């Protein structure tokens, strides 16, 4: 094989020189390689011997960690082998099989596949028609009017958040995030060398932002305020006035907002509130809103998220943010193309009844869990107004044997095989979070077990004789009430009778105390 290449200057000895005249009259010098002698391998200054390999992960990899993983790995989570595990920790609404996506979702994806047009690479920010569909969806709010070009499609809302944080902040900068809050904000930021400053949410005020605290955290390196509404883990929904207060802080300090609105429209009927997109309330504060199909359409695995850019005064444009998002989206070349092909139908044709039914199921669970847990001494649930979660406060003095929420959660797993995420996962002490997307019977069972746990483990032991309110099977009730009866007949003291009851999920221990006990005779 002959190789030709152009060389400037004097050629080395292993090449022959020739010249040809081109059609344009110019003379080209051609250098032809005669032979190439293979040189013996040089000893490399970076690798002194075969044993001196040192392959290290990057600083970014080392500084990226998911606090939930870290916390759970250090916890001792050994379920009671006699009880089937009930996990109230998983934020994936599909795992229990009780909530299904709308039919139109599977129709749309079948059509997308059958079209044969969605197998190639899409533009990194998404197909124009898919971006248009998201813009149309967002513009259902009369105060919003974005174009397809203001939409960036991403691989899930996590990726949307990643791009938003990456495009606004540099290493050494900081962003404000809620406490308690979704831990991914810190995971993403810290990996990039960006600090997170946590502003407090106030449980006694339905988790509204402590505005003074939020503003006090801002410094010259603050590049964005992350607002999550409706909230994970709190299930709170901010009303318009409160959102305006947050926007005022952003405006006073000239700081853009990253609005995590993945739970858009997830507002319970009983909350008497409505979902208000932050961007609909301001023309002065630039906002990047993150959303997606994940939660509302119950398809988290499909990984379709979006960023919508709200920039009435072209501040993002002037600073290169729009362009920066486009560049960053080229790192992973956008979201799944089959889902992009389906998105228009999903957003336009999902029946209203689907949204209503899903919300009604979750709201019913929220009410059930709240009513049950609020009557348990030592627990202080905060009634959610939307999303899929409820935070439950732990009155630590009621549990003197435990030092923190981690220990309470560990013991709840050990005793009752009920697993909730400790508040520490969301950067708040003395709370645990439960998910509300579980089947009703499972939630009832979980509440039963939590109640038993608290009775056994708290310093404050109430009576429990009204078992009809436990929603137990008839068998359970009859065996239990006979035990109650006998305990009433024979005991003047308040000795505990442990009656083992087998319900659908697992055996549950109930502590039945005679009515003569003086404290809190009725549960719930
Ligand atoms: C508040 C919040 N933001 C973002 C996400 C990430 O969503 P996705 O699964 O689409 O990446 C979640 C997921 O649980 C979430 O709760």
Describe this structure in words.
It is a single chain. About 35% of the residues lie in helices and about 20% in strands. By secondary structure, the chain is of the alpha/beta class. The protein has four domains: about 5-35, no CATH class; about 60-90 and about 350-455, Aspartate Aminotransferase, domain 1 (Alpha-Beta Complex), CATH 3.90.1150.10; about 105-350, Type I PLP-dependent aspartate aminotransferase-like (Major domain) (Aspartate Aminotransferase, domain 2, 3-Layer(aba) Sandwich), CATH 3.40.640; about 460-524, no CATH class. The strands form five sheets. The protein has an eight-stranded mixed beta sheet with strand order 5-12-11-10-9-6-7-8, sandwiched between helices. Strand 2 and strand 3 form a beta hairpin. It is globular. Mean pLDDT is about 85; it is low at about 1-10 and about 460-524. It binds pyridoxal-5'-phosphate. Pyridoxal-5'-phosphate binds next to helix 5.
């Amino acid at each position: 094989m002959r190789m030709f290449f152009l060389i400037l200057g004097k050629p080395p000895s292993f090449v022959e020189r020739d010249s040809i005249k081109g059609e344009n009259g110019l003379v080209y010098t051609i250098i032809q390689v005669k032979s190439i002698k293979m040189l013996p391998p040089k000893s490399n200054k970076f690798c002194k011997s075969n044993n001196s390999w040192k392959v290290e992960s990057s600083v970014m990899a080392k500084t990226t960690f998911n606090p939930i993983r870290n916390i759970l790995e250090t916890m001792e989570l050994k379920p009671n082998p006699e009880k089937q595990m009930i996990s109230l920790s998983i934020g994936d609404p599909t795992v229990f099989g009780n909530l299904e996506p709308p039919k139109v979702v599977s129709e749309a994806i079948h059509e997308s596949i059958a079209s044969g047009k969605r197998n190639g690479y899409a533009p990194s920010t998404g197909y124009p028609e898919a971006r248009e569909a998201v813009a149309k969806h967002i513009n259902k709010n009369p105060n919003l009017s974005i174009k397809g070009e203001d939409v960036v499609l991403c691989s899930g809302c996590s990726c949307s958040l990643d791009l938003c944080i990456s495009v606004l902040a540099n290493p050494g900068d900081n962003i404000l995030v809620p406490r308690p809050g979704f831990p991914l904000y810190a995971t993403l930021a810290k990996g990039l060398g960006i600090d997170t400053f946590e502003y407090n949410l106030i449980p006694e005020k339905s988790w509204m932002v402590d505005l003074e605290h939020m503003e006090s955290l801002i410094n010259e390196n603050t590049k964005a305020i992350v607002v999550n509404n409706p909230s994970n883990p709190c299930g709170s929904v901010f009303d318009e006035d409160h959102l305006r207060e947050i926007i005022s802080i952003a405006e006073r300090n000239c700081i853009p907002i990253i609005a995590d609105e993945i739970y858009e429209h997830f507002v319970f009927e009983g909350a008497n509130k409505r979902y208000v997109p932050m961007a609909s309330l301001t023309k002065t504060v630039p906002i990047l809103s993150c959303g997606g199909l994940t939660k509302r359409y119950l398809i988290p695995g499909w990984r379709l998220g979006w960023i919508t850019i709200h920039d009435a005064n072209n501040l993002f444009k002037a600073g290169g943010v729009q362009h920066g998002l486009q560049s960053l989206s080229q790192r992973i070349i956008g979201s799944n193309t089959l889902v992009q092909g389906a998105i228009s139908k999903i957003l336009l044709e999902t029946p209203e009844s689907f949204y209503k039914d899903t919300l009604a199921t979750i709201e019913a669970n929220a009410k059930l869990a709240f009513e049950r847990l609020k009557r348990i001494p030592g627990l202080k649930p905060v009634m959610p107004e939307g999303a899929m979660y409820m935070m439950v406060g732990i009155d630590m003095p009621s549990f003197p044997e435990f030092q923190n929420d981690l220990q309470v959660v560990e013991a709840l797993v050990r005793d009752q095989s009920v697993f909730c995420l400790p508040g520490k996962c969301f950067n708040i002490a003395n709370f645990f979070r439960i998910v509300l997307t579980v089947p009703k019977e499972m939630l009832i069972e979980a509440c039963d077990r939590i109640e038993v746990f608290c009775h056994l483990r708290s310093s404050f032991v109430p009576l429990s004789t009204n078992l009809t309110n436990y929603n137990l099977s008839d068998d359970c009730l009859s065996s239990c009430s006979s035990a109650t009866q006998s305990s009433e007949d024979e005991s003047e003291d308040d000795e505990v009778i442990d009656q083992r009851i087998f319900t659908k999920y697992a055996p549950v221990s109930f502590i039945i105390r005679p009515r003569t006990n003086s404290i809190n005779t009725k549960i719930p």
